[in-house]
């Protein structure tokens, strides 16, 4: 799928001793084509805008998120007689967590909202914990991100969630109410289709559901 959502992408693997020369040659000889260097931050923001998962975030990681939960179930071909991890995958796919949880994409448009970081908890509008943010980035229209949450009527029908930004911990927000205490601020986020549409209005990727 590429890191940035482009139709074509390349990853070059070279010996460390040759990397500086290759870097310089690419910038020098491709200057007329408008080539520019970009860091991991730029790569990550374009990846998130395109709704693409990253291992350790929207795939695998602590919760062993499977491709079927991340919207990439069609890449897993169970009709194949064998592939490494096939039996383990089928076993995990029957678990309660797999059936109940999914990766969603969201957008926060509220002006002046604090940057939402990985692991920020996600709630419904009644304060019920749903899950946590896996990735988020600022765009020209606010913040766009992905979260690993429990499926439910709130997320499916009302299409909105509440996020407490930059708060450590995935499950609980403990508030000590008293003099000088501060209550965490939450921001409303709109749930978007799992993958953005192309300019022609055709989804760039199809959900596994």
Write structural notes for this entry.
The protein has 209 residues and is of the alpha+beta class. It has helices at 19-29, 40-49, 86-93, 96-100, 153-158; strands at residues 101-108, 121-123, 129-139, 142-150, 160-163, 187-192. It has a six-stranded antiparallel barrel with strand order 1-4-3-2-5-6. The chain is globular, with a radius of gyration of 20 Å. The relative contact order is 0.15.
Name a few traits of the molecule.
209 residues, alpha+beta, 19% helix
Fraction of residues in helix? 10-25%
Radius of gyration (CA) equals 20 Å
**Which strand order spans the largest sheet, edge to edge or round the barrel?**
1-4-3-2-5-6
- Give the class from helix and strand content and strand pairing: alpha+beta
Range of strand content? 15-25%
In whole angstroms, the N-to-C terminal distance is: 19 Å
What are the low-pLDDT stretches, counting only 5+ consecutive residues below 50?
Answer: 199-209
Summarize the structure.
This protein has 209 residues and is α+β, with helices and mostly antiparallel strands. It has 5 helices and 6 strands, in the order H-H-H-H-E-E-E-E-H-E-E. A 6-stranded antiparallel beta barrel has the order 1-4-3-2-5-6.
């Amino acid at each position: 799928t590429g890191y940035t959502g482009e139709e074509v992408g390349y990853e070059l693997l070279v010996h460390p001793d040759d990397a500086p020369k290759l870097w310089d040659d690419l910038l020098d000889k491709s200057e007329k084509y408008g080539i520019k260097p970009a860091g991991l931050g730029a790569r990550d923001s374009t990846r998130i805008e395109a709704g693409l998962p990253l291992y350790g975030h929207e795939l695998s990681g602590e919760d062993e998120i499977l491709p079927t939960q991340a919207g990439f179930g069609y890449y897993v071909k169970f009709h194949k007689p064998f592939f490494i991890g096939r039996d383990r995958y089928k076993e995990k796919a029957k678990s309660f967590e797999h059936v109940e949880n999914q990766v969603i994409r969201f957008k926060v448009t509220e002006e002046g909202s604090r940057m939402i970081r990985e692991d920020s908890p996600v709630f419904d509008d009644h304060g019920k914990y749903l899950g946590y943010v896996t990735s988020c980035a600022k765009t020209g229209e606010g913040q766009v991100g992905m979260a690993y949450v429990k499926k439910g009527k709130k997320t499916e029908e009302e299409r909105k969630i509440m996020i407490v930004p930059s708060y450590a911990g995935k499950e609980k927000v403990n508030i000590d109410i008293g003099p000088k205490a501060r209550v965490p601020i939450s921001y409303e986020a709109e749930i978007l289709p799992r993958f953005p549409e192309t300019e022609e209005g055709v989804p760039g990727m199809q959900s596994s559901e």
